[in-house]
Write a structure and sequence with these properties.
The complex is a heterodimer of chains A (603) and B (462). Chain A is an alpha+beta fold. Chain A has helices at 15-23, 30-36, 49-54, 124-143, 200-215, 225-244, 247-257, 272-279, 293-296, 302-325, 337-353, 366-380, 388-398, 420-423, 427-436, 438-441, 534-558, and strands spanning 39-45, 60-66, 80-82, 85-86, 91-92, 97-99, 104-109, 112-115, 161-164, 173-176, 181-184, 186-189, 192-195, 269-270, 285-286, 450-457, 470-482, 495-507, 512-518, 562-565, 579-583, 589-593. Chain A is built from 17 helices and 22 strands. The mean pLDDT of chain A is 87. The two termini of chain B are 16 Å apart. Mean pLDDT of chain B is 87; it is low at 225-261. Classes of the chains: A alpha+beta (603), B alpha/beta (462). At the A-B interface, strand 5 and strand 12 of A face helix 4, helix 9, helix 11 and helix 12 of B.
């Protein structure tokens, strides 16, 4: 039977004691945290109401969410504020009330205050708590040491994302950086009201967008189809990952598939309720798909492309689980399906999500991610005794995703002597390192470079072993690209930006673990004797990127997708074209996909 | 004025006000097609005053033989103010069939439009919501113009003594639906697949109604299937208003958008600044309705073809072109529907002597994109013969496609007899290419306070 969020036991902590206990929570295992009341059980839809009706085993379950000391009505927590405003009815729904004594969100009815639970599924306050809890758990998953090992920033100014569970009537949900929000809409179909705020996959998907935007804000600039598709991939992967981390759902998957995930129909099918009612299909997208790059080459749809990478990663997951299924315990017993799935999913979480830190800051391509996955796995598991990396290479190759050949290009980099502690002290200190090593890094001689991010991680692997501390330096710059010719339509005569930059990852001793970059086309070191030979090849790649960008923009214009706006004005979101080009302060164009047209609405 | 058809397309800002004077035996038949603007009404008022001076006097009033309102957008009907037409005697008033209050084949369209009106009104009046200029204009186009509608349906016919015979709600096939007596009274015949007005002294002159179809719901509204980014269709299906009768519509429609004008209670867990930003970035069904409603109103435009002494003059209102054919379950555009009717297509696909470019020169007002240019436009226009006028103002419309649409202007410039170069055109790409005549760029008319483009068409063989 799925666990229910039970009535809270009486807690004997006063507010100060609880706060002190909360601060110590990072050192406590989850079981202890639950027992101390630092985690609270919250009933949520495991998938969505449609799946809940079809399969009682995956209806609702209790997930455990951090019980922060400053939780308040909304719900409102440190990073999330739920605002239940309906744009169409112009109404603000009363927020779920926080009862500090019970340490639960409650529903006040007939003079009583009941902890909100699955008994209240039809109440808007249940929806509010449902969406808050799932977003919180997604954020917690990413921030855990076995993924990012640090707090995940949002991309906007501020730290609290606004969540609107009943934003209005529409078959859509989307993340919008400009308003710091994730908006969930509702619609009617076949006599039923469908709430996107009750779909776990949709909630997790949108949160995935928001989190990736915080990690790599330049990815929202429309520089290539693969970059846009990558955003969709991470969002879908987030949905799959968080589903699989739900014990009850995972057990159900195990029961139905017998550990063979190629038989899975639960987690690999995304957004069943939405797909069924909005598009007439049994789901919106599927991770179980055979598509490779060749199959989608002619497609302009980022979703078609994202399915390639999602499919590849699901293949890796299947392979990892299958490998665990073949193992034996020390006792000689075979690993059970539940155990194999649990270990496989945990391993896969590290394989798939830890590499996000390795990615370049701009214009990510599928091959970059493949390279990051392999490199991050090398760092975490140098020996690869179980042969996961050949499995990964095979999965990528089968889909036509380019993988780097084995070998270490990092060895050719010979930086001038540096103190990693100094480099990691501030962005300007990191800049000095980059400037002093321009030639090694093939940074164009005349180009000013920005250090767009500098942070450290504290990651672990399964079993709790700590990975080397990572110091991550991200740098970027823009190069002007003139748009000359009628093929650019309304953009002709304007100047676009070629986004360039790189991510350097050092360990705590200053050893370079990874260098992933997007080359520029600017002139290199003028002195031939000082110029590195490999920099010519780097520059050629930059020139290729410039051509690719120009070609991509022509295609977007020819497809009628691009509209030029003088500035982004409020109230225009409904009437904007799919890709909006606006002029930045430096006079160059910024192209972004209109958030509400990014996905979920059928195309 | 000479023995030629004179077409004056007035510069009224963004709108249409077209005066047509047709030699008819010893007399002249005068008609006014539309009278509206999205801009302040001064130029419109001046245009009407100028029209009045051009009309023959009869019984102390200026005689206007036919007044046509192609569709109920403000930029086509705002000027129908009884005070401005006080000294006119109007012989006939034609309105698009869609504007018929109890039209049985436009119930659902009317329901939709009422929803759009209620939603638009609600958003425009909503406190604390800052709307961009283009968004505001879009919503305003969904607001019914009750004054103008009443003027067209009651005041003007009554003051001219032609009520209740007029207004006549016209469609391509209206002649088939009228009783014999009514057809005679209105001098309408059904010929070559369309309704033809034969009320001229010259028996060969015919004013054809090529659109809309009488069955508005069937052709222009569609069944509301969820068609991709169409935001409002599911709502359409879900609301009571969709199936309601016209009498109960306004209540049902407005019910979905309650308590407009009331200040919203501010959420306590975010700042006012953040809430204001959020409200500016939400998707409002009202805006989705307005987008659909905008197209719907355009596609119920009356399309008129004047056939006079061997000449053909086309006035398509704001008819739109999709280039995707016609499907009964789907929303269809006027041009697509016209080309779908074989006899109408045959009538259309012959060289024109005059074309008032539809929809102010927008990308979808003329069969141009999606095969339209080669398939249709080049059959209809002749550089030796066709004169085209565009009644427009740059930059007033067109969130994603500018109006007028430069590629269309350039294409028309190569296909028309009255091409012009406008070195001062706001569109940089059009400054050194030929365009058809544009009301916004033509020089003022000497000795007059109004500005217009005047085209004169001789009889064929003259």
């Amino acid at each position: 039977m799925p666990k229910q969020a039970s009535e809270p036991e009486s807690m004997s902590w006063d507010a100060e004691e609880f706060r002190a206990l909360y601060q110590a929570g990072d050192f406590l295992p989850n079981r202890t945290k639950s027992a101390l009341g630092l985690l609270m059980p919250v009933d949520v839809y495991v998938q969505d109401p449609f799946v809940a009706e079809q399969n009682k085993g995956v209806a609702l379950s209790a997930i455990h969410v951090r019980c922060e000391p400053n939780l308040s009505h909304g719900p409102t927590s440190a990073r999330i504020a739920v605002v239940d405003y309906d744009a169409d009815s112009h109404k603000l729904e009363p927020p779920a009330q926080w009862d500090a004594r019970k340490r639960r969100f409650v529903l006040k009815k007939d003079g009583k205050a009941e902890p909100i639970s699955r008994q209240h599924c039809s109440e808007p306050q249940f929806h509010q708590v449902n969406v808050w809890a799932i977003i919180q758990s997604v954020l917690d998953m990413y921030e855990a040491t076995w993924v990012l090992g640090r707090s995940a920033p949002w991309a906007f100014e501020g730290n609290r994302i606004i969540v609107v569970p009943h934003a209005g009537y529409l078959a859509n949900a989307f993340y919008d950086r400009s308003s710091k929000s994730i908006q969930f809409y509702y619609f009617d179909a076949q006599g039923k009201r469908v709430y996107t705020c009750l779909s776990h996959d949709i909630i997790a998907h949108e949160t995935g967008h928001a989190i990736l935007d915080g990690l790599r804000p330049y990815y929202l600039e429309d520089s290539s189809l693969q970059t846009t598709a990558f955003h969709e991939f991470v969002a879908d992967l987030t949905a799959i990952m968080t589903s699989l981390l739900n014990n009850e759902l995972r057990w159900e998957v195990g029961k139905q598939s017998g550990g063979d995930l190629s038989q899975d129909t639960i987690v690999s099918a995304l957004a069943e309720e939405f797909g069924r009612y909005a598009t007439g299909r049994p789901y919106l997208r599927s991770a179980q798909n055979p598509n490779g790059i060749a199959a989608v080459k002619a497609s302009h749809s980022p979703y078609d492309w994202s399915e390639v990478l999602t499919g590849a990663m699901f293949d890796i997951l299947k392979g990892v689980v299958a490998q665990y299924m073949r193992r034996e315990l020390k006792s000689g017993q075979k690993v059970s399906t539940r155990q194999a799935l649990s270990w496989g999913v945990n391993r896969f979480r590290r394989i798939a999500l830890q590499p996000l830190d390795y990615l370049p800051p701009v214009d990510v391509q599928f091959g970059d991610y493949a390279r990051a996955v392999l490199r991050a796995d090398e760092v975490a598991d140098a020996l690869d005794e179980h042969g996961f990396r050949p499995l990964m290479r095979a999965a990528f190759a089968a889909r036509g995703i380019e993988c780097p050949s084995e070998g270490d290009e990092l060895e050719r980099l010979r930086f001038y002597a540096y103190d990693i502690e100094r480099v990691s002290r501030s962005r300007t200190d990191a800049y000095h390192f980059l400037n002093e090593n321009r030639r090694q890094l093939c940074l164009p001689a005349e180009q000013d470079i920005s250090v767009v991010n500098l942070y450290q991680t504290d990651k672990t692997v399964m079993g709790g072993a700590r990975l080397p501390r990572e110091i991550v330096v991200q740098y970027a710059w823009r190069e002007d690209v003139e748009l000359k010719g009628k093929e650019y339509g309304a953009l002709a005569g304007q100047t676009a930006s070629l986004l360039c930059g790189g991510t350097l990852i050092f360990d705590g001793r200053g050893n370079l673990l990874s260098w992933m970059r997007k080359q520029g086309s600017g002139k290199q070191e003028p002195n031939k004797n000082l110029r590195r030979r490999y920099c010519e090849e780097e520059r050629n790649k930059g020139l290729q990127r410039r051509e690719q960008l120009q070609g991509y923009l022509k295609l977007r214009v020819a497809a009628g997708l691009v509209g030029l706006l003088e500035r982004e004005a409020t109230g225009e979101i409904n009437t904007r074209p799919p890709v909006v080009a606006t002029c930045a302060d430096d006079g160059t164009l910024r192209l972004r996909v209109s958030p509400h047209l990014r996905h979920w609405a059928a195309e | 004025m000479s023995d030629r058809v004179i077409i004056r397309t007035y510069d009224v800002g963004f709108g249409d006000c077209i005066f047509v004077q047709i030699p008819d035996g010893q007399d002249k038949f005068c008609m006014l097609i539309d009278c509206g603007t999205s801009d302040p009404a001064e130029r419109l008022k001046a245009a009407i005053a100028d029209v009045r001076t051009t009309l023959p006097e009869e019984g102390g009033k200026a005689r206007l033989d036919l007044l046509v309102a192609t569709h109920p957008h403000a930029d086509h009907i705002k000027g129908f103010d009884p005070a401005w037409f006080e000294r006119f005697k109007i012989g006939r008033i034609w309105l698009t069939a869609f504007m018929k209050p109890d039209h049985p084949q436009a119930k659902k369209t009317l329901a939709f439009q009422n929803m759009a009106h209620a939603a638009a009104r609600g958003l425009l009046e909503r406190s604390g919501l800052q709307l961009a200029g283009g968004t505001r204009a879009l919503l305003q186009r969904s607001i019914w113009n009750p004054g103008a509608l009443k003027a067209l349906r009651e005041d003007l016919p009554q003051s001219s003594g032609i009520y209740p015979q007029y207004p006549l709600y016209v469609a391509r096939d209206v002649a088939k639906r009228l009783k014999v007596q009514e057809r005679k009274q209105h001098k309408l015949k059904f010929e070559q697949g369309s309704t033809c007005f034969r009320g001229f002294k010259e028996p060969k002159t015919c004013l054809r109604v090529l659109a809309p179809e009488w069955d508005i719901d069937k052709y222009y509204l569609g069944e509301g299937a969820f068609d991709g980014p169409a935001l409002s269709d599911p709502y359409l299906l879900g609301t009571q208003a969709y199936g309601a009768s016209a009498e109960t519509l306004d209540g049902a429609g407005a019910a979905a958008f309650l308590e407009e004008g009331a200040a919203v209670v501010h959420p306590e867990n975010i700042s006012e600044h953040d809430f204001r930003q959020l409200r500016g970035r939400l998707l409002y069904s009202g805006l989705a309705f307005s987008q659909k409603d905008d197209k719907l109103k355009n596609n119920t435009s009356v399309v008129l073809l004047l056939e006079w002494r061997g000449r053909r003059l086309l006035f398509p209102g704001d008819a739109e072109w999709q280039g995707t054919g016609v499907e009964e379950s789907r929303r269809n555009s006027t041009w697509d529907v016209m080309f779908h009717v074989p006899q109408v297509k045959q009538v259309l696909l012959q060289p024109l002597d005059f074309l008032k470019a539809a929809h102010h020169g927008s990308h979808n007002g003329t069969p141009f994109l999606k095969g339209g240019k080669a398939d249709y436009l080049e059959h209809m226009l002749s550089a030796q013969r066709t004169q085209v006028v565009v009644s427009t103002v740059t930059g007033e419309h067109g969130e994603d496609m500018p109006v007028p649409y430069p590629p269309l202007m350039q294409a028309l410039g190569g296909l028309v007899a009255n091409k012009r170069r406008y070195p001062h055109a706001p569109e940089e790409e059009l400054r050194s290419v030929d365009q058809p005549q544009r009301t916004d760029l033509e020089p003022p008319v000497q000795g007059k306070k109004v500005r217009y483009v005047e085209v004169a068409i001789d009889a064929a063989g003259a």
